[in-house]
Amino acid sequence: MPIVRLDEATVRRIAAGEVVERPASVVKELVENALDAGARMIRVEVAAGGRELIRVQDDGCGIPAEELPLAVERHTTSKLRRFEDLAHVLSYGFRGEALAAISAVSDFEIVSCIPGASSGARLRVRFGRPARVEPVGAAPGTVVTVRDLFATVPARRRFLRQDATEVAYIQRALAALALARPDVRFEFIVDGRMALATPGSGQLVDALAGVFGLETAAQIVPIEPVPHDEVTVTGAIGLPAVSRANRQAFFILVNQRWVESRTLVAAAEQAYHTLLMVGRYPIGVIAVQLPPERVDVNVHPTKREVRFADERAVAAAVHEAVRRTLLAHLPEQSPPAVTFSPLSPPAVQRRLLVADPTRAAPVMTRPDPEPLPVSPIEDSRTESDQRLPILRVLGQIRQAYIIAEGPDGMYLIDQHAAHERILLERLLEELATHGVEQQRLLEPLILELAPSQLEAFERYADELVRLGWEIEPFGGVSVAVRAVPAVVQRSIERVLLAVLDELAAGGRGTTPLEQVAISTACHSAIRAGQELSLSEMRELIRQLEQCRAPLACGHGRPTVVHLSTEELERQFGRR
Question: Residue 445: what are its φ and ψ, rounded to 5°?
């Protein structure tokens, strides 16, 4: 096949693919342009997940009418003049590709007016074919409207997710930009409903409340800036109590630019070592400030990645700042005086998830569900081998482990893992008999979901219903919770978001229903750090003794460590 020169329309669409991956990419580029224009208010409106409509309005400096045609050409920019300027880029945009790329794959319109002008100007570009500039009445600033995104690129359009998922991606991008610029007022409107709003007060705490909600923002603490070899780290991080099952609620900013950096994320997470359970991740925003010549922002078409002159020094500064902040806000924790461990590792306890139909269950009015689609998991031990003996509770260690005495030694019980096993067997028993017992809410609980959470909700919708959750879409990225499983006795919002986070990360279990059951039981169970009375500990142990598979939780973690009488005597030199 001979070498030929591609036509201009094909070249523009190929180039657009490097910059415009999905509707969230369009919003990010347009909002960054608005920030570079000095906007103090940015309003983003989308419909049908951004496929049908994206509109970004700002009150910035605007674009003169004579420059509008130039603005939609490739490699035209007001941010730099020569190659050497790339070493000192402080603006969000600079590559001169955003408007050209977006207008090549959409019905694009830009209306702009500079301050003091008697009128504005409008330019429309239909899938790369520009029209002439027309005078219009307009307020100072710029309004960019994008319709029918990817209409001429059906392959790209087919790979977009459901509307709610695309909206969630957009909201995450806006959340990062709002945290980077708390001095700018952001509004995000989805299908006519306000989905996100920040006041633009200039205070990070106000932006955090707008992004995460008041309850979560109350558990996010500021990082006090301390220079570290020309690197200053600020921002705010969540205390371990508000961790997530993924990294979607953690943002890295470099010179106010939202970037992806696995090195810096790893440095921040390492600071939480011993403070978060395995599989949990922090939330918050890390803002790194350093001289522009020490960071290269021109290494990715969408400016998503950066390269540091000394990445190790920046990572060290992030780790030190996060760790110092955590230690300043957490109570002093002294290590335990003695650490017990069995002489040999316990045998792996595989989950036994099929409920015993002969055991009693609460009578329900709901119709019988379909049989539980999980198969018995074979275990080399008999059921009698898995049963616990009758135990006498002695006390609690570090508000996490229960000490008990049995006929053949001492038992240490992980209170969270034990309660998770109890709730899991209860859920599966109810599911296999008369249906999971529910509790209805007096008023629906409205929650906004992250992109991954929304996708998990859509993927596991049927299984959530079978496990007692009654949740319905509430427009945009929000859902309305109307009923929950009866095992959920504490913060419904925390439990549901944690369940969706775990499901988004893949969950545990051999079937989707198993995954929802395990996750619901885990996040409804009592936590480590919760003080229990002697009677509560006794009741917990009594229920664990009655479980069919009491030696491990649904995730496979052991619930019990046994130290035999012989082992105790050997430790104390009695034999």
Answer: -95, 120
CA nearest 520: which of 530, 528, 512, 532? Answer: 512
- pLDDT at 96 (0 to 100): 59
Which residue reads 């909206």 in tokens?
A: 167
Instruction: Supply the DSSP symbol for 527.
Output: -
Better-predicted residue by pLDDT, 75 or 377: 75
Tell me, what's the pLDDT at 363?
31
Q: Which of 293-307, 359-373, 526-540 has the lowest mean pLDDT?
A: 359-373
Tell me the β-bridge partners of 561.
Answer: 412
Paired tokens of 344:
């040999």
Q: What local confidence, expressed as pLDDT, does residue 207 receive?
A: 94
Tracing tokens 């957490």 back to the chain, one arrives at 330
> What does the H/E/C string look like for 540-552?
HHHHHHCCCCCCE
Domains and CATH numbers, the chain: 1-200 (3.30.565.10), 219-328 (3.30.230.10), 383-565 (3.30.1540.20)
Per-residue HEC secondary structure of 247-281 comes to CCCEEEEECCEEECCHHHHHHHHHHCCCCCCCCCE
The residue type found at 165 is T
Q: Span 242-248, mean pLDDT?
A: 80
3-state secondary structure of 340: coil
Are 62 and 208 in contact, with CB atoms under 8 Å apart?
A: no
- Report the C-alpha gap between 130 and 125 in whole angstroms: 4
What is d(CA 46, CA 188) in angstroms, rounded to the nearest whole number? 8
Q: Which helix (H) or strand (E) holds 92?
A: none
CA 137 vs CA 41, 59, 278: distances in Å: 20, 15, 57
Which residues touch 260 (CB under 8 Å, ≥6 apart)?
252, 304, 305
Q: What phi and psi values does residue 284 have, to the nearest 5 degrees?
A: 135, -165
Cβ of 285: how many Cβ atoms within 10 Å? 28
Distance (Å, whole) CA 291 – CA 288 = 10
- If 0-12 CB within 10 Å is exposed, 13-18 middle and 19+ buried, where does residue 469 land? buried
Helix (H) / strand (E) containing 432: helix 415-432
Half-sphere exposure of 230 (CA within 13 A, CB side): 11
Contact 437, 364 (CB under 8 A): yes
d(CA 417, CA 400): 10
Q: Whole-structure pTM over 0.70, yes or no?
A: no
* Residue 59, burial from CB neighbour count under 10 angstroms (0-12, 13-18, 19+): buried
The pLDDT confidence band at residue 176, using thresholds 50, 70 and 90, is very high
